[in-house]
Amino acid sequence: MTSVHHTRAFYVINGITLYRIVTVPLLLWLLFTSRYELFKWGIALSFFTDLIDGFLARTFNVTSIAGTKLDSIGDDLTVAVAVTGLVMIHPAFVKEQLWIWILLALLFVLQVGYALIRYRKMSNFHTWLAKTAALLQGIFLILTFFIGEPLPVLFYIAAGITMLELTEEIVLVYLLPGWRANVHGIFQVWQEQKQKRAPGDARPAE
Questions:
Q1: Burial zone of 53 (CB within 10 Å; 0-12 exposed, 13-18 middle, 19+ buried)
Q2: What CA–CA distance (Å, rounded) separates 21 from 99?
Q3: Could you tell me which residues come within 8 angstroms of residue 14 by beta carbon, excluding any fewer than 6 positions away?
Q4: Which of 130, 122, 119, 115 has the alpha carbon at shortest distance from 170?
Q5: In this structure, are residues 158 and 83 in contact, taking their beta carbons and an 8 Å threshold?
Q6: Helix crossing, 152-175 with 98-119: angle to 10°?
Q7: Which one of 38, 58, 89 terminates a domain?
Q8: Is residue 29 part of a domain?
Q9: Residue 65: which domain range?
Q10: List of residues 6+ apart from 75 with CB closer than 8 A
Q11: pLDDT in tens, the chain (206 residues)
Q12: What local confidence, expressed as pLDDT, does residue 206 receive?
């Protein structure tokens, strides 16, 4: 890929990511004005762009620290708006599963707080488990808005994977003394640390 095409891909991909951020006020306006039909299509499009920009970034090998941070902000805002919609449209379901929501919130605050204390910034690991959790969250929330009612089994699966993902990120913050982006998971870090601890190959004496 030429530098011109690479630059164009960089701006297009980050533009798609930025879309999720700039449309947050519009989605909230649709939600609070009870335009639920438009809201569900808008939030579905936001989740879809999350899949697209990641795929394009890997395809065209367009990665940057700024893009990674932007992607994390867009992801968090999209999920926050979707959960707000869930609370407004299906308050009874949220109340029934309140203890799960509280546990998720506590893990999220603990993870963010620990990263801010250790790195002075939020983590941007983008682990495989985080990508899986984001996919399941999106599927649950989109299906809820389009079907018209939450699917409890899918919620439990998405919530369980999200708890595992947040726990993994807390462990990663503990294991990694310095801030890093795009870490696959705990196994990758353990392998790296194991290799660093391994003694060098000693040559036999002649």
A1: buried
A2: 29
A3: 53, 66, 67, 70
A4: 115
A5: no
A6: 20
A7: 89
A8: yes
A9: 1-89
A10: 20, 50, 134
A11: 556 555 776 777 778 888 899 999 999 999 999 999 999 999 999 999 888 876 776 676 666 677 777 888 888 899 999 999 999 999 999 999 999 999 999 999 999 999 999 999 888 888 999 989 999 999 999 999 999 999 999 999 999 999 999 999 999 999 999 988 888 899 989 888 888 877 654 444 44
A12: 40
Residue 151, CA atoms < 13 Å, CB-side half-sphere? 16
Token pair listed for 106: 């506590």
Domain count, the chain: 2
Which one of 89, 111, 132 terminates a domain? Answer: 89
Give the Cα separation of 114 and 120 in Å (integer): 9
Q: Which one, of 73, 85, 98, lies nearest residue 143 by Cα?
A: 85
Yes or no: say if 24 and 77 are a contact pair by the CB < 8 Å rule.
yes
